[in-house]
Design brief:
The chain has a three-stranded parallel beta sheet, covered by helices on one side. The two termini are about 15 Å apart. By secondary structure, it is of the alpha/beta class. It is globular, with a radius of gyration of 15 Å. The protein has a single domain, classed as 3-Layer(aba) Sandwich (Rossmann fold), CATH 3.40.50. The protein has three helices and three strands; from the N terminus they run H-E-H-E-H-E. Helix 2 packs parallel to helix 3. GO terms for molecular function: L-lactate dehydrogenase (NAD+) activity. InterPro entries: Lactate/malate_DH_N, NAD(P)-bd_dom_sf. This is Lactate/malate dehydrogenase N-terminal domain-containing protein.
Length: about 100
């Protein structure tokens, strides 16, 4: 977030916010998603996948509800990353928003 705030000096009419209140995204041009859930060392990859998928769905559906015209930029930091990237790309095709992906 701090890096983005430093870059704001070079952008016009830009406001950067971090929030869990999705109503703050109304009329946003771009929303960047970097959601992740904490991994429990004793947890299986399948359980982690299910929890991360649940988080992703909740975040994306809330953003689509509040900001149907925004560009959603999904920075994939959810594990297992290779599976989550494919699921997120498949899932997002069913929504009307525009998407960009980046694996971290």
């Amino acid at each position: 977030m701090l890096d983005l705030q430093h870059a704001i000096a070079f952008l016009r009419r830009t406001r950067i916010r971090a929030s869990t209140d999705y109503s703050n995204t109304v009329d946003s041009g771009v929303c960047i998603i970097t959601a992740n859930t904490q991994h429990n060392p004793k947890e299986s990859r399948l359980n982690l996948l299910q929890r991360n998928l649940t988080t992703f769905k909740r975040v994306v559906l809330s953003l689509v509800e509040h900001s149907p015209e925004t560009l959603l930029v999904v920075v994939v930091v959810l594990n297992p990353i290779e599976v989550m990237t494919n699921i997120e790309m498949w899932y997002s095709r069913n929504l009307r928003n525009k998407y960009k992906y980046m694996e971290v």
